[in-house]
Amino acid sequence: MAKRLVIKVTAGADAPERCSQAFTVAAVAVASGVEVSLWLTGESAWFALPGRAAEFELPHAAPLPDLLETIASGGRLTLCTQCAARRDIGEGDVIEGVRIAGAQVFVSEIVGDDVQALVY
């Protein structure tokens, strides 16, 4: 098993099953003791804002706020710099624990033998 798992989620309410899968895998990995970094990109960028995860619904899926809380408690949450800018989201707008960073940081996280990267 990889020592670190980096997940880039591009889907939000526009593709709820893909979105939920990414958050579920990240939360399960955190609960299993894996070092997790979840990147919010594209439409998932909205979940960096307070209250937005509570608006997400998908039947038979774990509630997104619960998954987000699990990930935040033991992993790292990053909002893509360009995705934030396109949505006019600033550092002061995001929930506690979310950082805003760009491609250089993403690349530095996914390079290495002990890393598994997934894109949803």
TrEMBL record:
Q: What is the lineage of its organism?
A: Bacteria, Bacillati, Actinomycetota, Actinomycetes, Kitasatosporales
- What is the name of the protein in this document? Sulfur reduction protein DsrE
Q: Which InterPro entries match?
A: DsrEFH-like (IPR027396), Sulphur_relay_DsrE/F-like (IPR003787)
Q: Which source organism?
A: Streptomyces lonarensis
Pfam short name (any one): DsrE
